[in-house]
Amino acid sequence: MIEVGVVMGSNSDWDVMEHAVKVLKDFGVNYEALVVSAHRTPDLLFEYAEAAETHGLKVIIAGAGGAAHLPGMLAAKTIVPVLGVPVPSKYLKGQDSLYSIVQMPKGIPVGTLAIGEAGATNAGLLAVQILACYKPELAVKLHEFRKMQAQTVLNMTLPEVE
Ligand code: RP5
């Protein structure tokens, strides 16, 4: 059963959002990835969000750029947790996306990540952490991932100063 939905406002968001998908794949999470535009396919947005809970989705990761209302509108139509990824935009470098996603008025939360690749990767990791609350095999994999990540830093060396 698909547990995580990764949606984005355009296929131009893929270069960023693929980093969330890569994490889900690496952890063996069943996911689906699709384009849903809040302003160009609003009916599809409503359909997707309304069906999310009954389809068994546990987390939705939503990435969008510019006036990025996709995560907030999805969150408005479902109680499935929505993680928002601000995609870098052409003129404002994603600050517009960040502000659009992060400043949700109280009552409808969106868990907002960092702008760009780091945010997409962390959205994937956060989704895995949410699933790990009831899937012990994912918790084991997360502990292993953290250990390997720490070891990478412990192995780092710095150049000698002449
Ligand atoms: C938003 O507008 C998308 O999320 C994308 O970041 C941005 C530009 O979309 P395209 O013009 O590249 O389709 O809806």
Automatic annotation (TrEMBL):
Q: What does this protein do?
A: Catalyzes the conversion of N5-carboxyaminoimidazole ribonucleotide (N5-CAIR) to 4-carboxy-5-aminoimidazole ribonucleotide (CAIR).
Known pathway: Purine metabolism; IMP biosynthesis via de novo pathway; 5-amino-1-(5-phospho-D-ribosyl)imidazole-4-carboxylate from 5-amino-1-(5-phospho-D-ribosyl)imidazole (N5-CAIR route): step 2/2
Report domain PurE positions: 2-153
EC code(s) of this entry:
5.4.99.18
Biological processes per GO annotation: 'de novo' IMP biosynthetic process
Q: What is this protein called?
A: N5-carboxyaminoimidazole ribonucleotide mutase
Q: What molecular functions are annotated in GO for this chain?
A: 5-(carboxyamino)imidazole ribonucleotide mutase activity
The catalysed reaction is: 5-carboxyamino-1-(5-phospho-D-ribosyl)imidazole + H(+) = 5-amino-1-(5-phospho-D-ribosyl)imidazole-4-carboxylate
Keywords recorded for this protein, A-Z: Isomerase, Purine biosynthesis
* Pfam families to which the protein is assigned, alphabetical: AIRC
EC class name? isomerase
